Amino acid sequence: MVLLEWFEDVLRESGLMPLWEAVSPWLALDERQLIFVVATPVFIGLFLWEYRKIRHNPALANGRESLLNFLLGAGYQTTELLFAGLIAFPVYAFAFHHRLMDIELSWATALLLWVLVDFFYYWFHRTSHRVRWFWAAHVTHHSSERMNFSTAMRQNATNIFNGGWLFYVPLAFVGFNPVWIGVCYALSLVYQYFIHTTLVDKLHPAIEAIFNTPSHHRVHHGRNPEYIDQNYAGVFIVWDKMFGTFVEEKKDLPVEYGITRPVYSNSLIVNWCHEYADMFKAMAKHGPLTQRLKHLWKPPEWERDSSEQLTVKSE
To answer: pLDDT digit string (tens) for 194-226?
Structure first.
């Protein structure tokens, strides 16, 4: 099959043939999951250290919610492991097979790819807040009213079906191997785990100027009108400064964490699916089909006015 030849081309060019022969081909192609497997014990250990320091403050930590957060993360990793090879990787293999050039892996190209993946992450993340279809998956990450390391694990098991991975496909068309795109993406998520905390104040100004930090990311998780939908960066905060979405954390304006329409539930299904349910419920209301479909790509707060909803009834 042509698709299998594309898979082999991706693997051969990645330099991972020895790994292919040693472990499951599925895992060999999805290096992201191997990185997450290695990082997870570190994540748990760091959270336990943090939890000891904040456990007596219910505004900062809740044991039951923290357990839920790690279960949400486990669900995300499970669906990614089971379905990424079936859904996302064929698209990446197609793109890489039709690549514009051959890009040899070196320190220079690896650094370039790291920066490019972070650039595409900025736009993926920004879209995840401003397009309701993508927000339906991303909202899970923001629905906690606490900020700690376990909050980083609040992920949606529907992410692989939601299509956010499409943002990085152009990099494969250019000529970057999909395996290394996945590695950069995974390392970016590992980095972002460490910025989900209230225990770290502002860092050196030089660091704050270039990198996403706990201070910058606390702003991103705020639902304060002054903070909401700001600081989308993954690793480099410079993207927000370039594109007008940067807001500095203010000591006289404490961050209020969470979402504007809170969902209080310990159910995995509810936390994964509540925004999809609300979106499809909004689409089901009477009105022209063109107006109903707008709920998919309009911002999460967008609503049809009553005249649009009554058009079909009046006709």
So the answer is: 999 999 999 999 999 999 999 999 999 999 999
Residues 222, 257 contacting (CB under 8 angstroms): yes
- Provide the residue type at 87 as one letter: I
Cα separations (Å) of 43 from 46, 47, 75, 301? 5, 6, 16, 33
Separation CA 241–CA 247 (nearest Å): 9
pTM of the model: 0.88
Q: To the nearest whole number, what is the mean pLDDT of the chain?
A: 91
pLDDT tens-digit series, residues 106-156: 999 999 999 999 999 999 999 999 999 999 999 999 999 999 999 999 999
Instruction: Enumerate residues 6+ apart whose C-beta is below 8 A from 34.
Output: 27
Alpha carbons within 13 angstroms on the beta-carbon side of residue 26 total 9
- Cα distances from 115 to residues 95, 119, 188, 234, 235, in angstroms, run 20, 6, 10, 10, 9
Whole-angstrom distance, CA of residue 143 vs CA of residue 155: 10
CA 131 to chain centre: 14
DSSP assignment of 25-53: HHHHH-HHHHHHHHHHHHHHHHHHHHHHH
Going by the DSSP 8-state scheme, the letter that residue 236 receives in this structure is B
Q: What is the pLDDT of residue 263?
A: 92
Task: Give CA–CA dist 125/169, Å, rounded.
Answer: 15
In terms of Cα–Cα distance, which of 138, 192, 154, 140 is closest to 67? 154
The pLDDT of residue 24 is above 80: no
| CA–CA gap between residue 284 and residue 204 (Å, rounded) | 51
Strand-pair partners of 222: 257
> Are the C-beta atoms of residues 17 and 179 closer than 8 Å to each other?
no
Classify 211 as helix, strand or coil: strand
CB burial readout 247-275, b (16+ within 10 A) else e? bebeeeeebebbbeeeeeeeeeeebbbbb
